[in-house]
Structures are given as structure tokens and as C-alpha cells.
Amino acid sequence: MAEIQHTLADLVKFSSEQKPLEFGSAFSSLIAPKIETAINAKKIEVAQNMFNSNDSESDESDDAEAGDEDAEVA
Questions:
Q1: Pick from 6, 57, 44, 54: nearest CA to 28
Q2: What residues have CB less than 8 Å from 5, skipping those under 6 apart?
Q3: Which H or E run contains 23?
Q4: Are the CB atoms for 25 and 1 separated by under 8 Å?
Q5: Which of 3, 14, 39, 51 sits CB 3.0–4.6 Å from 22 for a disulfide?
Q6: What are the C-alpha distances in Å from 27 to residues 36, 40, 41, 48, 52?
Q7: Distance of alpha carbon 57 from alpha carbon 71, whole angstroms
Q8: pTM, full prediction
Q9: Which DSSP symbol is given to 51?
Q10: By the 8 A CB rule, do 14 and 23 touch?
Q11: How far is it, in rounded angstroms, from Cα 60 to Cα 71?
Q12: Neighbour tally for 51: CB within 10 Å
């Protein structure tokens, strides 16, 4: 079965004609590739940052932890 390619004009048309099933199908076919692209980009970002240590980030977290300990003592 061939997948139907929808446009934003289809969304407007289905909305104005009050066809919720067609609107949902059109919306899903338009948004799914964008979501997939964003998720894949985030996966790559997380994978690149997972093993790269950044000293400034660890220094900031150490400072934050020290600040929390000082607040508990006071």
C-alpha cells in the first residue's frame, strides 16, 4: 500500500470540513519525519557527549554540591 503524501493545505481542508480522522492521518504523516529527525539528532548529541568529559561541568557540579552542604549546616 502506497503512503499518501499530505500537505498543510490538506490539514486546513480536513479541519474546515470537520474530518478528524483524515486530519489526524495527515498530521501524523507530516510530523512523523520531523520527530524522527529530531530524535536521531538528539541520539547523536547524547552519544557524543556521553564519554566526553568536560572539566567545567564537573567543577560546576562540585561547587553546587558544596553549596548545598553549606546550606544544611547553617
A1: 6
A2: 29
A3: helix 20-50
A4: no
A5: 14
A6: 14, 20, 22, 32, 38
A7: 21
A8: 0.53
A9: S
A10: yes
A11: 17
A12: 6
One-letter amino acid identity for 52? N
> Quick one: pLDDT at residue 54?
63
What mean pLDDT comes out for the span 58-74? 56
Per the listing, cell 572539566 goes with 55
Average pLDDT, integer, range 1-6: 69
Measure the CA angle with vertex 26, ends 40 and 11; round to 5°: 120
| C-alpha cell belonging to residue 64 | 553546587
Given a contact cutoff of 8 angstroms between Cβ atoms, the answer to whether 7 and 27 are in contact is no
